[in-house]
Amino acid sequence: MMIHAIRCASKIEGVVMNKYQLFIDGKWVDGSEGVTEAVINPATEDVIGHFCHATSDDIERAVAAAKQGLKDWSAVPAWERGDILKRAADLLRERKEKIARILTLEQGKPLAESVGEIDRAADFIEWGGEEGRRVAGRLISGRDTGCSIQVRKVPVGVVAAFAPWNFPIVLTAKKLAGLLGAGCSCVVKPAEETPGSVVELIKVLVDAGVPGNALNMVLGKPADISNQLIADPAIRKITFTGSSPVGKLLASQAGQYMKPVTMELGGHSPVIVFDDVEVAALAKSLVAKKFFNAGQVCVSPTRFFVHKSIYDEFVKVFVQSAKELVVGDGCGVKTKMGPLANIRRLEAMEVLVKDAVAKGAKIETGGKRIGDKGFFFEPTVLTNVSLDAELMSTEIFGPIVPILPFDDEDEVLRIANDVDYGLAGYFFTKDADRQAKFSDQLTVGTIGVNDVPAHIAEVPLGGWGDSGYGVEGGIEALDAYLKSKYVSYR
Ligand SMILES: O=CCCCC(=O)O
Q: Residues in domain Aldehyde dehydrogenase (predicted)?
């Protein structure tokens, strides 16, 4: 497969020297020791910028600022906080063309996907501000005459927020929307691959009126930053989106300090296709869903089970459609799938394919890196895949699809549930009984019935099992950032 050749210039318009500084106490600053690290365009492997590494002192100053920021921001009336977040959402929408370019250059996804991500981020921010206005405690009658009880909802405190590189804007926005809506302050750590996107998000929020000290951002060595932030007594809540192994590590560290966590972790979503569907149309539409963001999506459809009576037709159309996908630089107008975001994902794809093939899988299309510049991997479809293949139990997070035939409905349900993850699951059938059964019995936090839905602001999304705990979005969006206080009056 050839890479579609259109390339964007690596210089990011409007970002002076593409140097990403830390944001501490309302000021953009270099790391105290002057250490920087390169940001790479995954489509070209060009260096497109550098980000500053925070030292331990820098992190300490960020936390100190956030402590004061908590006082300042929580004192702003919720109604006004809602106005500010609404303004931020509007500003983000206004700036989306420029920010989308930055996102595509550092993450690789097609520009249209970047724009869509920013629109969704704006919705989450607006939603967080609106929900903040609706936070209310309650009054309870006391047991004795003259006694009354208040239940107050108060911000949990300073939050350490760790954001991933696959959707750096919307997944950071979900956290900021919830915590700022609730009146908390934070120290955010974006992923090393995608600092520029989060820098732009912070600028938007600050320009809209969020006090700079409520919204601190540090960059640098992930483990150094998380170790220090989690241990800091001023940090009262941890929120993380990323892989299950890292989530388990951070949650166990937070547990030592008795700090609550929200963990939005990996997934391995089954897709079950019954025999009563429009086979060709569905296969084509699932290609677009599967290769969205090059498969680097926690809720990506990943383990395909297709009823054996339609299996051959489904595979044929799916493979043909996967072959037709235009893979290339995300800035190319025709590009439908960009590169993987980093070399680690590329290497992981090679290992997963090799393992599956060694266990009997047949490569129907794809299976290898494209070219030797840029982290491109072919859209890959595998058949005859053993349930023992590593990719049937380990999150794929890339453009590989195993498609397996099934015959027995109970057996496919058992296999679908037989992984440690429990994030999402999708099935396709017109049969109402099956719809009820599979919606009830799939052990995941999100279900698509004849659908692979996107996460939208008004809906809570969270995983079960190794996919984490807590949710983001929905009327629950602020729950993670509020605590209850029982006040009894006599
Ligand atoms: O990668 C996990 C998050 C996907 C949900 C989203 O795109 O908002």
A: 28-487
Pocket test for ligand 1, best of 167, 244, 246, 444 (most atoms within 8 A of CB): 167
In a domain, 301, yes or no: yes
* DSSP type of residue 481: G
CB of 341 shorter than 6 A to ligand 1: no
- Better-scored residue on pLDDT, 112 or 2: 112
The CA distance from 454 to 448, in Å, is 10
Total number of domains in the chain: 2
Q: What does the pLDDT average to over 190-201?
A: 98
pLDDT digits (tens, 9 = 90+) for 2-48: 555 444 544 444 444 489 999 999 999 999 999 999 999 999 999 99
The rounded mean pLDDT for the chain is 96
Domain span at residue 478 reads 7-265+467-489
Examine residue 2 and state whether it is found in any structural domain, yes or no: no
The predicted structure's pLDDT at residue 18:
86
More confident residue, 69 or 9: 69
Is 462 among the domain residues?
A: no
Spatial CA neighbour of 247 closest among 22, 39, 470, 37 = 470
Residues near 184 by Cβ (< 8 Å), separated by ≥ 6? 70, 73, 74, 155, 156, 157, 158, 159, 237, 481
Q: Residue 264 catalytic?
A: yes
CA–centroid distance, 276 to ligand 1, in Å, is 29
Whether the CB of 172 sits within 6 Å of ligand 1: no
Nearest to 175, CA basis, from 185, 166, 21, 165? 185
Judge whether 162 and 240 are in contact, CB under 8 Å: yes
